[in-house]
Amino acid sequence: MIIPDAEQKTRVVHEILNQQYGVQEIYARQDPMHELIATVLSHRTTHANEVLAYRTLWERFGSWENIREAPLEELIQAIQSANYPEVKAPWIKAILSRIMAERGEAAIDFLREMTTDEAMAWLTALPGVGLKTATLLLLFNFQKPVLPVDTHVHRVTQRLGILGPKVSAEKAHALLLAYLPPDPAVLFNFHKHFYWHGQRICTWSFPKCSQCVLKNHCDYYAKARPLPMNAK
After folding, report:
1. Which cofactor does it need (predicted)?
2. How far is Cα 163 from Cα 179, in angstroms, rounded to an integer?
3. What fold does the segment set 6-25+147-217 form as a domain?
4. How far apart are CA 185 and CA 79, in angstroms?
5. Which pairs with CB-CB distance under 8 Å and at least 24 residues apart come from 217-226?
6. What are 180-191's pLDDT values in tens digits?
7. Which stretches within 104-206 are classed as H helix?
């Protein structure tokens, strides 16, 4: 669903959040292979449990080669702090096997030289790698002009009325990207600020609307706020 004036609203609220949270320099959270596997581990899992699973994986096996060759049951046990380890462990083994077979080592720095479309197609062909994982990796590590849409970005933009209520997170990637300039620094800040805002203010339950700097631009707030005492 396309919302009238959604592009204008997107840019207005983005500028407000730039002022609220400050413009950030684009940065990589960790090296590309770490980012790839950690993001696979992060699916439907808290950040703390993702970090624990990744640390345990390396403490137990010590190298990408050993992780690839590890017995599946041992790998599942190592990442049990992440939800659905029985699903993620085969994905990780398959991802490492493919990368090492194609490249001769566990490294994906070659994505930097690919076009955005080529890099996106290569990543999303890997087991367990969807749009969110691919866009996070390409934006953070390789500064490609893509926009990750996680649950926080999706929720906030829907409540604002930028996205329709039935627009999926998958479709939201392309819609939101079309409303913003193709500048990795802009897209990085949009992602980070909406992520923080969804974590801290526009939470899934009990959103803190009274503290929200976007409330005057928000469809959810307009519908949810109490009427004045003299309203008919």
Report:
1. [4Fe-4S] cluster
2. 11
3. Endonuclease Iii, domain 2 (1.10.1670)
4. 33
5. 217/9, 217/12, 217/13, 217/16, 217/160, 218/159, 218/160, 218/161, 219/159, 219/160, 219/161, 220/159, 220/160, 220/161, 221/159
6. 999 999 999 999
7. 116-124, 131-142, 151-160, 169-179, 184-200
